[in-house]
Amino acid sequence: MNPAIDAPTIEYGTLAPLLIVFGAAIIGVLVEAFAPRYLRKSIHVPLTLLSLAGAFALVLVQVLRGQVSTAPSAMGALAVDGPSLFLWGVILVLSFVCVLLVNDEGHFVASAASVPGSADEEGAESVDNGSGHTEVYPLVLFAVGGMLLFPAANDLLMMFVALEVMSLPLYLLCGLARRRRLLSQEASMKYFLLGAFSSAFFLYGTAMVYGFAGTVSLSGINHALSAGSGLDPLLLIGLSMLGVGLLFKIGAAPFQAWKPDVYQGAPTPITALMASGTLVAAVGAVLRVFWVGLGNLDWDWRPVIWVIAALTMIVGSVLAITQTEIKRMLAYSSVAHAGFLLVGVMATFGTAEQNAVSLKAILFYLAVYGVTTVGAFAVVTLIRDPGGEAGHLSRWAGLGKRAPMLAGTFAFFLLAFAGIPLTSGFFGKYAVFAAAVSSGTQPGDPIGGWMVGLVVVGVIASAVAAFFYVRVIVLMFFSEPAADGPAIAVPSMGTVAVIAVSLLVTVGVGLYPESVLGIANDAASSLFIR
Amino acid sequence: MTTHYLVLSGLLFAIGAMGVLIRRNAIVVFMCVELMLNACNLAFVTFSRQVGNLEGQIIAFFVMVVAAAEVVVGLAIIVTIFRTRRSASVDDANLLKY
Amino acid sequence: MESEIAQITQHTGGVIGNAWLMIAFPLVGAFILLVFNKLTDRWGHLLGVAMSLASFVVAVLAFFELIGFGASERRRAVELYEFIPNLDLKMGLLIDPLSISFALLITGVGSLIHIYSIGYMAHDEHRRRFFAYLNLFVSAMLLLVLADNYVGLFIGWEGVGLASYLLIGFWQFKPSAAVAAKKAFVVNRVGDFGLLVGMFVIWTTFGTLAFKDLYGKIGEAGASDGVMLAIGLLLLLGACGKSAQLPLQSWLLDAMEGPTPVSALIHAATMVTAGVYLVVRSGAFFFPEGSGAALAVTIVGAATLLAGAIIGCAKDDIKKGLAGSTMSQIGYMMLGAGLGPAGYAFAIGHLITHGFFKADLFLGAGSVMHGMNDEVNMRKYGGLRKFMPITFVTFFIGYLAIIGFPLLSGYFTKDGIIETAVHHAPVLGWLAVLGAGITGFYMSRMVFMTFFGQKRWADDAHPHESPAVMTVPLMVLSLGALGLGAWLVLGGTLYDFLIPSVGGSAAEAPKFNPFTTPGLVTLALVAVGAVFAWMRYGRAEVPAVQPRGSFLTTFARRDLYGDAINESLFMRPGQWLTRLAVFFDNRGIDGLVNGLAAGIGGSSGRLRRIQTGFARTYALSIFIGAALLTGALLLVGTI
Amino acid sequence: MSPWLPILMAVPVVGAIVVALLPKGSDKLAKQVTLLVSLVVLVLTGVMAAGFDPDGDRFQFTAAYNWIPSFGVKFGVGVDGVALVLIALSAVLVPIVVLASWHDADGVKTADGTLITPKRSVKTYFSLLLVLETMMIGVFAATDIFLFYVFFEAMLIPMYFMIGSYGGAQRSYAAVKFLLYSLFGGLLMLVAVIGLYVVAGKSTFMFPELVGAIQDPTTQKWLFGGFFIAFAIKAPLWPVHTWLPDAAAQAPAGAAVLLVGVLDKVGTFGMLRFCLELFPDAAKAFTMPIVVLAVISIIYGAIVAIGQTDMKRLIAYTSISHFGFIVLGVFAMSSTASAGAALYMVNHGFATGALFLAAGFLIARRGSPFISDYGGVQRVAPVLAGFFLVAGLAGLSLPGLSSFVSEFMVMIGTYESQAHGSGALTVAAVISAIAVILAAVYILWMVQRTINGPTAEPVKAFKDLNVREIVVLAPLVALIIGFGFFPKPLLDVINPSVHQTLTNVQVPVSTIAEKGTGQ
């Protein structure tokens, strides 16, 4: 028993992006507390954007300097390896773009506490512009911080904390919509309750695994597994419970139920953030847990994930067909995409290069899908009725005639979702499917054929999915405009920038995917730290 | 020896889960979630005793903190909902569906 | 006897070397008339005539150049260009006695009919288009007979089919004309199917479609008799279609919807005889004397010659009557063509003479109609000989020729066929004799109803003689009807001339001898027929409206129920099949596709109900999901 | 590295951008630019084709640039004989279609002045047209299978918009049906493409290197299936044909021409090049069933065509019959038949193109696609009637017109093919020859009901073809007749690459020599 506790070593350089984001978040809170109301926004906006940009810059620096750490940082709590850095970069870009959307007027309630329709709400409205509460920004920053932490967490405890840090602000953000506040609050409550519920499962799973392995560090678990002390039910229960928590976050069937409601109810910029950033982070975490932690257990989890992946793709695409609300439809489409990503997760086993291939595929997919999603939601924010965004699809009829550019852009995003060639989405899909097939054809894989089968399910699902994307295009271009069509809001600079960037990326990557693929390749080549 | 505790934690977890499924009042539902978390805590502590390292107990502390944070957020949300709808029943809030 | 068939020698230069001009002239004419349509309205018909005459001149020159060669070198092949390399097919012409005789007939009679048409179509606003089509026909027909391979022949074959389609439907604004045109084409296509498949077999068996290569290969390829018979029958099917032989005869009578010169040129003198040409041309390969195929040809011929004659007896429409007789006469030719080299000469001979006298008759009929403002019903004629003497005389010569009145063209050629037939295939031969008798009857009936008896025409009709431009061709043709037969047959001129093409040997050239049993019987029967006709239609009063006839009469009037059979056997079932198929396509296949889509949509509609909007339901789904997941993992784990 | 094909593909897309960027209200200019660009492409294609050496390497004007190294994808282009003639076909058809659909976008009025289609964006239409041209050239020029696939799928989008926004009453149904149907096939093909790449393990998609890469018969069968279904839907082959009548009937005439004339050829082209050469054993194994399907298409398509009441649908069904012939030729495993099929792809493009356009001109005057609304056009518009008739005759492949040569070669080649012992294919050839009769029925019956007969009242107001319309149809008719008598130029280009294909399939190339009559 030596009393001296040696102080933990923290690789500040490596963790700098995290620290900046969290730091900025805390400053944001202080600003909320002390800065005069009329100043806050003008402080928050640059603060938030700069912190995100700065974090991104630091990520870049690490990559360019080739300082990608190959060992866990912060006493093994975090693993800032190639994939993490890539995911960080993606998350930071996406959240930066989302913040630009957040800046746009009129998405967020002036004062969340005020009762809808009550006098004080009116009052808050009347002294609008700068007078509104600005807690949005620090909340977003905390959420982003959580997102960064989530995929980098190297032990389950850290992952749980990250999960909560990411989720809690989002629960709140969901409830801050300015229009249709009842929906917004309902969404927020549902998200909160279900989120908490699922994270409880995650935690219980952690406990079980801890009970089995005697540690919560992924590498430790992996070690314990390779030590091969039989298949302890503890472990299996734990595994499933962890799975519940994670799959809930990426919205895989049968844990997808929250997605449409929350996506519809939440303020659109936040929906964009969840649909892009959260998904990226969650998938990263899933990969880390299943591949780093439970890599030696793939014989057991792959069949299960197979079923879930197939189910998710089918449920997502089939249910989307009959949706009449654009955000709900996109929610279901994101469920379907989660399914496609799971196909990629299925492919991460076997030889090292196979891992790299599928990892690359997933990273690429996440990047391009995230960007397209943000773009799509950005367009959604612009189509407005007096009562707020014109969510109902019937309102979109004939948009192609009234706003050709906007409609064209949206159509292009939809085609990207559908995975039509010469859009980024196609290459994402191709990458994942190709990885799956190649993993399926690895020698000595008993369920290799099943992998190909999963891919076939995937293509059929995406054929079905194509239907509802195309349906929107039909509405926009082939139907006559409604007499009292929705107004096309004059977009703020920010929104314009968002749409432009997303379009640029979607087109550019569609024409020359190597641009992003190359990076994903480098990131993936140095696998997760095991 | 420890199995009893595990069984207990399991029971607590189950009760919590059931509560979430059965109770209507948002507050109660939320409390049940807390109950599930505490079940986890019990499991952690037990296991930490079983495997003979302190991680589990440390985790328990973390969990409590997180739980506390959850309470803050949760109550805020529930209160707002209650103020607008004059009801804290989870079932009343189902405008979003299909 | 094949041995007598001359080798084909490649030829270049001279008129024969440029024989393609024969085809080119009318083609160019048609092209100009169709492309510069309105511009050529004024002089278009003259251009048409000129072009036809031009190729006639070429034909004549080629003929003389050809007879300049010794008999054994009278088969000159002219290569034009490579057509389908994959089939080693070069487009080329074969100028030999057979093809040149046809060329002369086509261009000669063709030109006459062109000239005649100037007058006949004078009042038609689309006369220019009419001449364009005529020119098109002439050039296609020439390609048919001059081509040195089956594909080239087939192109011409369909080309004349097209021309016939266009000309039958020339007055297409009449639905009847439009329908008749389509019918002609479709029925012909049935024949073409045979010819087409025939070509498949020939190519696959002998590896060539060119006549000159076939000679070498027939023996060596060692094709089974079955194959040879198949080829023969398939080609015969084609011939039946084009030559309106049973069972594909039905279109010819409707084809009379076309202007009369068309009926004369295409549906009497030339196109319909293409089948005979095909049989004779392929005779050396696929219809050797005594082969099954040859037998089939003779049977078809005999059957058709009777059928045509019977139909001819019952028609009051002068053109349909002539059409029936055309069927019948071609039947004779077919019969002859099935009898080997001995018969070929007479078949071709009859073909040529028939070309003249039948064209003569048709144009005569046309001239009558011209004077009777397009009345075709003979019951509304009568006693016209006084009003249109020239037409009457020429028509009468044609009449004598066709019934085989001694010393006129038809006499020699038809009698020749009958003689040979009786000699080779007695039964069929005697049928032919009977046919001759019937011919005597219905042709006489026609003449008496039209030119004799008292006038039965409507008051608004003012019968008058046709202009010279129409009567002169009539005279020329009637000259042919008079003397041509004697010149061709006596001394076996034509026979010897054709030997290089169709075989046979000068040694056994059939000597013409009228005083044989069949010959005399024929004459007797013809006389009987004529007299019988005189009693019923010359002396007796001809009722202006058609009386209800006996069963036999109705049978004949209904074209032996040919159309009825086609309708009930092919048209009706076809229509049903079509409706069925369309229904199946829309409801069945497409229904399946749309049903699938609807199914997915419906299931989606039901599934989304699961999304109740109750947070606790979602929680439940999570819980159940967790349970299943755990269960599954435990299951997999324990496996 | 020859720049020809990349340039050829670049020109239209640049043109498309230019057209799209033209200021508002410059519709006329947009049309002129489009026409100019398409003519430039035509000229360039002509010059390139002149430089093609039939006896040279199989693939000429090749170029390959790294495109997506991490997928092993190259931007690889190059043409063999078949591809060349098909590119030429597209290059010829596009300017004609541009001219034909000159007024399609700016609201079509009938003779009696009723508006059929409202005014729509002209610039969009023509830039879509040019984008489509790039993709058509690209899909035939691609020697990299991935690149081929990209164009194969991307092609759907411009066509989808052309049908969907410029088509008839049912346009959106037709457009969606067309897109989803083809997309479904394409996705199955995608799996096969991936499989091919993975199994071959050559980490390249370049076609020449992948020939013979797959040996295992079972694998071949699966991959073949993936490719074939996609191509069968595209072609379209019975029973996956039902999208075509809807699409063709609803699309504006010009788009229909490109759809049936070129896009569908990608299917048969793909069968000939990819299905046969990449998976020879599978191709042989599946010959019989496919031949059966082809024969069904031939007869079935013809019979259903007879029963149609809508001109464009009728033409669409005739095309299904003709595609049956092409597929039959492709899988007859005989050089004559395959060459005939390749030739048919071109001829059918001209013939059906002419027929669709002529029908389109009729419909533009009357505003109804239904045969029963016409009659006696001959009297009022003889020139239109004449062109319609000639196009129709080409459709029933009258000897002397181009389609005959190809149809004849296909049938005779199938007849002589010994692929499945004598007999099997022989029967197929004989049955398919029945279509010769049916073709006469469906074409001439339509002609009888539209062109012939007494002139219907509304038809009396018809104007005859104007100069533009004549300029549209004349070249097609000229080509139809020209290649009807002189198919050699095309065949000389086609034959070598077809022989190459069959050699890769280890089918004895039955040439003249084997027939023994060679001089």
Task: Please give a structural write-up.
The complex is a heterotetramer of chains A (530), B (98), C (639) and D (519). By secondary structure, chain A is mainly alpha-helical. Chain A has one domain (12-525). Chain A has helices at residues 12-34, 37-64, 82-103, 119-126, 136-152, 156-174, 181-213, 218-227, 233-250, 258-265, 268-293, 298-321, 326-346, 352-382, 399-402, 404-418, 424-440, 448-478, 493-511, 514-525; strands at residues 383-385, 388-389, 487-488. In chain A, helix 1 runs antiparallel to helix 5 (136-152). The longest helix of chain A has 33 residues, at 181-213. Chain A starts with 11 loop residues before the first helix and ends in a 5-residue tail after the last helix. Chain B has helices at 2-22, 26-51, 55-85. In chain B, helix 1 packs antiparallel against helix 2 (26-51). Chain B starts with a helix and ends in a 13-residue tail after the last helix. In chain B, 37% of the residues are buried. With 639 residues, chain C is an all-alpha fold. Among the domains of chain C are: 312-557, no CATH class; 569-638, no CATH class. Helix content of chain C is 72%, strand content 3%. Chain C has helices at 14-17, 20-35, 44-67, 97-120, 127-146, 150-168, 175-206, 211-221, 225-243, 250-254, 260-269, 274-286, 292-314, 318-337, 341-371, 389-403, 409-424, 426-451, 468-489, 493-502, 517-539, 551-557, 562-607, 615-638; strands at 9-10, 76-84, 89-95. Chain C has a three-stranded mixed beta sheet. Chain D is mainly alpha-helical and 519 residues long. Chain D has one domain (4-515). Chain D contains 22 helices and four strands. Chain D has helices at residues 4-21, 27-50, 81-100, 122-141, 145-154, 156-166, 171-200, 207-210, 217-234, 243-250, 253-278, 280-306, 311-331, 335-366, 377-380, 382-395, 402-416, 421-433, 435-450, 467-485, 488-504, 512-515, and strands spanning 60-68, 73-79, 106-109, 115-119. In chain D, the strands form two sheets. In chain D, strands 1-2 form a two-stranded antiparallel sheet. In chain D, strand 3 and strand 4 (115-119) form a beta hairpin. Mean pLDDT of chain D is 88; it is low at 511-519. The chains are: A mainly alpha (530), B mainly alpha (98), C mainly alpha (639), D mainly alpha (519). Chains in contact: A-B, A-C, A-D, B-C, C-D. At the C-D interface, strand 2, helix 6, helix 7 and helix 23 of C face helix 7, helix 12, helix 14, helix 16 and helix 17 of D.
